[in-house]
Write a structure and sequence with these properties.
about 20% strand; about 625 residues; alpha+beta; five-stranded antiparallel beta sheet
């Protein structure tokens, strides 16, 4: 991860592009080629299954031809009469049979070029052999199939045998017949019931067909085909065209494959031999009890698919290389701006805040450079402002020292006047001077901008005491604050401007002739917030003026200073009273505690005015500010 983090963005982007393309391409290619392999195998199976079914149909047609040939011999009445004579036939009878029946049977033989011979081996010593149909049964008594036929009591028998020396084939398809020394033979015993109602054995009819004609596809394998046909007979012997076998396969391999095929019970079987895959399709031929085997070599198919895959891989690699080169040059152009921005940042880091960033444009890097320039401007402005503030702070410290000296002089002077008033018995003046001193100390003591509610209320009490001298004790201050709220935190001088506005704008002559102005301060908790209500029974504020006043409390400075000239009443409400007006009080609260806090004014003309201060529920003590 550390090595990767140290790589340049350009190398990371090029690597990301290659991975984004390479990984999906590998996954998709693997999926597609896997599916392609499977679909190709399915197509090969389907195609060769069709060929195998066609070969089986042709074999069944050959079986039908051979069975029909035997049927013709068995159903020929003249032939049956000839082979059942009980004495030596006359010459005329032989000529008549040869002229009619034998000629017909020969025409059946020679009209079907696939049949090599049709012979009737007769168990009758009285008749003479008539080539190529009639032979004596003595010729075949030493043959293995004769014993099988006699044991089957006349049933038919199919066998694949070596070529019979009795055959004298005159066949136009000699090339096929010469390719093999085997024949497919159909043998059937011929019996009849004699005059004593006993079964009499007349002989054996044998129809022979060269194996190359019977299994044409197996013995006509073309060298350009990737599949070969084989025949496995009931004795377990394998027959095929040995002139063009499949490479890497021998007779034992095919026999083992057929055994596994029969055990698996599947429609096809895929086996490997010496690193080469072979697909086996097997069809059972019931009547001859043999297996027709279609063996397909997949080596050529795999080679073609591998060649296609390799071509695709080479093309993908070439495209990736071209993409990497193209991406490299394109990113060099794009990242050049970023490099300029990086060098500019290095200069700023070294302390050069006057660097000029020569990067323009509306793209992301151009926008970043624009904001970086603005940031530099802001930093330069802040540096200049900090210098100015530092100078102003020094000046303020000198002024504060001077004020401190003046304040001590005033405190001492007020204390001397208070003592003189008490000596002269002017206790009202003495109390007023005490309150005035407390007010001055509270105003001048700014060690913190946060105070406890008890301090702010005490300051207001001193203020009202002094103002009562002016209003002839017609001002009354009512404090409704529970002891648990007196330690609550609030901003210094946040309630005094509210009370001051109540005195300045709530007093009217009728009220002062009566009970006077009553200002009530009430504190309470509600909904997790702390509220302070300052209510007076003064003249109140008209509805439109009240709405305008509440709107000005929440205005931004830009909106407020853009207002046209104000009336005397609203201007007076927003003037700084003791340095802080209602709007400034609201702004100070929101700046310190948040936008959800501040002032809300309610009033009814000629009845009352109520200012509600919303604050968070906090206490302020020696241990710091805490949430109640």
């Amino acid at each position: 991860m550390r090595w990767f983090a140290d790589l340049s963005i350009q190398i990371k982007l090029i690597g990301a592009y290659i991975l984004i393309i390479l990984v999906p391409v590998i996954i998709i290619s693997n999926y597609l080629f896997t599916g392609f392999y499977q679909n190709t195998i399915k197509d090969i199976i389907q195609e060769n299954r069709y060929q195998t079914d066609n070969e089986k149909q042709e074999i069944m047609s050959k079986i039908e031809v051979m069975e029909q040939s035997i049927g013709l011999l068995v159903s020929d009445r003249q032939l049956r009469e000839y082979v059942t004579v009980e004495s030596e036939p006359e010459l005329e009878d032989i000529k008549r049979f040869q002229e009619y029946s034998l000629t017909f049977l020969q025409s059946v033989l020679f009209n079907n070029s696939d049949i090599a011979g049709i012979r009737f081996f007769v168990n009758n010593p009285w008749i003479s052999e008539l080539w190529p149909i009639i032979y004596h049964e003595e010729r075949i008594k030493d043959s293995p199939f004769y014993t099988k036929m006699m044991n089957q009591n006349g049933n038919i028998l199919w066998e694949i045998q070596s070529e019979d020396t009795l055959l004298q084939v005159q066949d136009s398809n000699a090339a096929v017949n010469q390719s093999s020394s085997s024949i497919v033979s159909l043998m059937a015993g011929v019996n009849q019931i004699n005059s004593q109602n006993l079964i009499q054995h007349l002989g054996i009819i044998k129809v022979d067909m060269p194996i190359g004609n019977f299994f044409k596809k197996a013995y006509n394998n073309s060298s350009d085909r990737v599949s070969r046909f084989y025949i496995l007979d009931q004795q377990g012997n394998l027959h095929a065209n040995n002139t063009d076998p499949l490479p890497e396969l021998d007779e034992a391999d095919i026999q083992q494959a057929v055994a596994k095929y029969q055990q698996a019970g599947k429609s096809s079987l895929l086996l490997s031999r010496k690193g080469e895959d072979f697909l086996y399709l097997v069809e059972h031929i019931d009547k001859i009890n043999a297996e027709l085997i279609n063996v397909i070599s997949l080596q050529t198919t795999y080679s073609k698919i591998d060649q296609t895959r390799n071509t695709v891989i080479v093309v993908i690699l070439i495209l990736l290389i071209l993409l990497a080169i193209t991406t490299f040059f394109m990113q060099s152009i794009i990242l050049n701006k970023l490099n300029i921005l990086r060098e500019s940042m290095k200069q700023v880091r070294s302390g050069d805040f006057g660097v000029d960033i020569d990067v323009r444009g509306g793209d992301e890097i151009g926008e970043l450079a624009h904001h970086f320039r603005q940031m530099l401007n802001t930093i330069n402005e802040m540096i200049a402002d900090a210098v100015k503030r530092s100078a102003a702070t020094k000046e303020a410290e000198l002024q504060a020292l001077h004020n401190q000296i003046d304040a001590h002089f005033l405190y001492n002077t007020l204390e001397n006047l208070k003592m003189l008033a008490e000596v002269e018995g002017q206790y009202t003046v003495s109390d007023a001077l005490t309150s005035l001193g407390s007010i001055m100390r509270y105003n001048l003591r700014w060690s913190s901008d946060r105070v406890q509610l008890r301090d702010e209320v005490g300051h207001i009490q001193h203020y009202v005491t002094i103002m009562n001298i002016r209003y002839d004790e017609k001002l009354k201050l009512v404090i409704e604050v529970e002891d648990r709220f007196r330690d609550h935190e609030l901003l210094k001088m946040s309630l005094q401007p509210i009370v001051e506005n109540a005195l300045k704008h709530g007093v009217y002559s009728a009220l002062m002739k009566g009970d006077g102005l009553v200002v009530a301060i009430r504190a309470f908790e509600e909904g997790g917030f702390f509220y302070i209500e300052v209510t007076d029974n003064g003249i109140g504020i008209a509805g439109d003026k009240l709405q305008e006043l509440n709107r000005k409390l929440i205005m931004s400075d830009e909106e407020f200073y853009a207002l046209p000239g104000e009336t005397t009443e609203t201007a007076e409400l927003n003037k700084r009273s003791g340095g802080i007006g209602l709007r400034n009080v609201n702004q100070r609260i929101q700046m310190v505690y948040g936008e959800e806090y501040g002032l809300r004014i309610e009033s009814k003309r000629g009845s009352y005015t109520q200012v509600t201060v919303k604050l968070p529920l906090l206490t302020s003590g020696r241990g710091g500010t805490q949430i109640i």
